[in-house]
Design a protein that fits this description.
The protein is of the alpha+beta class. Helix content is 19%, strand content 36%. A hairpin with a 2-residue loop joins β5 and β6. The longest helix is centred in the last third of the chain and has 16 residues, at 88-103. The radius of gyration is 15 Å and the shape is globular. The termini are far apart.
Length: 134
């Protein structure tokens, strides 16, 4: 858990943050079967080959474990991808890894769609825990 003086929530923050700065808050309803969803169509990154911007739609859903992702920190974390060069598939896996590490959910799904470039739309879906072999 993050030290109080390093939290984003309740402090003036004017720029992107890294995964290590993601704030979480306690989830005190372990007996409740809940699904939390975040979505945005304002996520961008840079194509690592052409240097051109790529635009994404993100749909994130998770069943909380002991902690919830804090929305202000999520916005600032997603902002950090704006100037990063990465492919859609790598971004989806990075988001999943970082967000699972931050809040330890029961399960999480990152559904990331890169908007049309060169006539192709790319959709990558990654899950925790992995459903491989199920």
């Amino acid at each position: 858990m993050q030290q109080e003086d390093k939290r984003v929530l309740g402090r003036e923050t004017r720029g992107p943050i890294g995964a290590e700065q993601l704030d979480t808050v306690p989830w005190n309803h372990a007996d409740t079967d809940a699904v939390v969803e975040f979505s945005t169509d304002e996520l961008t990154a840079i194509c690592p080959v052409t240097g051109q911007p790529d635009f994404y739609e993100l749909k994130l859903s998770y069943r909380p474990g002991p902690r919830l992702l804090e929305s202000k920190a999520m916005k600032l974390y997603l902002w950090s991808f704006r100037d990063r060069g990465m492919f859609a598939e790598d971004m989806a896996a990075t988001l999943l890894k970082d967000l699972v590490a931050a809040c330890d959910p029961v399960e999480m799904t990152v559904d990331l769609t890169q908007q049309v470039r060169g006539g192709l739309k790319i959709r990558t879906v990654v899950r925790h825990p992995s459903t491989e072999g199920a």
